[in-house]
Amino acid sequence: MISQNQNVIQSDSLLSSPSSKAIDADSYFKKNTPPSNLNEITAKSAEFIATNTKLGRPVVLVTSGGTTVPLENNTVRFVDNFSAGTRGAISAEFFLKSGYSVIFLHRKHSLQPFNRKYATPELGFLDFLFISQEGTVKIKPQYEESLIHDIALFNDIISQNRLYMPTFITLSDYLFSLREITNLLNPLGPNAFFYLAAAVSDFFIPADKMVEHKIQSSEGELSLTMNQVPKFLKPLVNSWAPNSFVVSFKLETDPNLLEAKARLSLEKYGHQAVVANILHTRKNVVWIIKRDSMDKAEEIRLSDEEIKNHVEIEQYIIKKLIKIHNSFIQNSKSSS
Amino acid sequence: MISQNQNVIQSDSLLSSPSSKAIDADSYFKKNTPPSNLNEITAKSAEFIATNTKLGRPVVLVTSGGTTVPLENNTVRFVDNFSAGTRGAISAEFFLKSGYSVIFLHRKHSLQPFNRKYATPELGFLDFLFISQEGTVKIKPQYEESLIHDIALFNDIISQNRLYMPTFITLSDYLFSLREITNLLNPLGPNAFFYLAAAVSDFFIPADKMVEHKIQSSEGELSLTMNQVPKFLKPLVNSWAPNSFVVSFKLETDPNLLEAKARLSLEKYGHQAVVANILHTRKNVVWIIKRDSMDKAEEIRLSDEEIKNHVEIEQYIIKKLIKIHNSFIQNSKSSS
Q1: Which residues in chain B have their CB less than 8 angstroms from residue A77's CB?
Q2: What is the mean pLDDT of residues B164-193?
Q3: Which ipTM did the prediction report?
Q4: Which top-rank group of organisms is this from (chains A, B) (predicted)?
Q5: Does residue B16 sit within a domain?
Q6: Which tens digit of pLDDT belongs to each residue from A184-211?
Q7: Is residue A26 situated within a structural domain?
Q8: A227 contact B CB<8A
Q9: Interface of A with B in 41-100 (CB under 8 A)
Q10: Could you tell me where the DSSP H helices lie in chain B?
Q11: Which pLDDT belongs to residue B209?
């Protein structure tokens, strides 16, 4: 039932030229409405970046969670991308522990750093608590040690203004916010780190083609034609923040495609590294593919022992990437 | 770009007859795979219903959250329905407070009764806690009173085995579980209460038409044709649990359609009541439309004062529906 037909070009197509398949980024922004809180996100990001840069702290933008593509203007239905935001939330923690300050641009209601440990389908907030004999609320003893550690760390980070967590829901919210934050990070040059872990939609329905009200099922089958989303990595790397350190993610389900697609992405956009992973093994193995070493993907794989002990692979990913980022900064200095 | 074309019938269509638009429920179950934990859900539901019925407690099935429709077998993308599960989670609380035992069949990661108050985008778990001077974890004083109340209530309910919370993600998970639980509630006759608040997909892609791997955006536009989901309310009301008390929900964005669609649903399926609401005002006003009073929808509307004080409209909905349920039980007795 799914067909991906290159030949079906709508007569009122938004395609920017007959030969290209997707509109360009500028046209996308012209045709879509920014989120209502964009000014707030921009102002707070600017302040956050200024404060942290003044104190000599490196700043990373971590994007996390899936973007939605509404099917109606009054949205009841939408196309979503699989992501609970686990990778992004854990990664943000390891950046923070490594001394980075973090703008955590994430899907509303997706997992947040630190808090993500305490809201699982199996254990809710109230499961951690009990009422003591004195009638006060207490933490169950088995959770106390880990919680004391996390609260201390979390409160330190918040009081030092090292974590800012703006949200998005739709693809369009995400792209407008990404562009603004990127423009603000651009002056940091090679020190700016982009860790683009969000699961961004590849297809969308242009706002001017969307129906106003909930689609009625009584009218039969539903046929949808969705346009390709412009590849925003291209302007990000080439014009919004051309001297920054940019890491993108590539998630596939077919292992045969993964490495080739990651390398193609580096060639097309010219950024520094891709973290490549397969849906069903993403928690235990990833490959880091760098632009300047096209010959070999670097594998990071948890051992059976580590998997048993719930070691989080993100700590190795972040450690490796920070090392690459530091070399990148050194190289940028020596070449300038 | 969205077209809903009644004329596009696929040559290899799954339509059960040339004149109908959707396959029937039986065909749906034959063509889809049950969730891997269906046996567990069935066994636990059976035990839950037996225990609670033996103790003379009424049992309600509350469904909550949106179902997903995967676009790929190895799912990266899916169509989702707008729902955080707020209505269902709050409603379950009021059922529990009114003496009902609750099977809360909900979308994984959607809001849960009681816990939902303590996991919002604004306030995460760690925001409620601090480390005291003695080095132990404590609840911030402003939250203690409400928490003591909720923990006591929650622990009571759990220890009395009055709440069972199975989950679903996909449309197919939901429908298989719904059918099993309905079969188990059927012997309760008019005492069985179905409160079907889940936002269930109207369209799906049949499993045998789905692509195996992540759809590649490099191949151009994406065209999707989705089939209508069978109307499961029909077999539920007419054959799975024909003597039960069934309440469905109708959410629209266009106020002009709402009442007519709710009444049409009662006529078509023959259940007892519809809770009708409009997307943008659903927290402040709903209409209850009963089958046996086709002349007038009953409006439940919060006052400005109540809205200011964060009164939850679900308490009025549940109170009203329990009253209707009790009359229904009386009528069923006197007519049998």
Answers
A1: 79-82, 201
A2: 97
A3: 0.80
A4: Eukaryota
A5: no
A6: 999 999 999 999 999 999 888 877 777 7
A7: no
A8: yes
A9: 68, 71-72, 74-82, 84
A10: 25-31, 38-54, 86-97, 141-159, 171-185, 233-235, 255-269, 304-308, 314-335
A11: 75
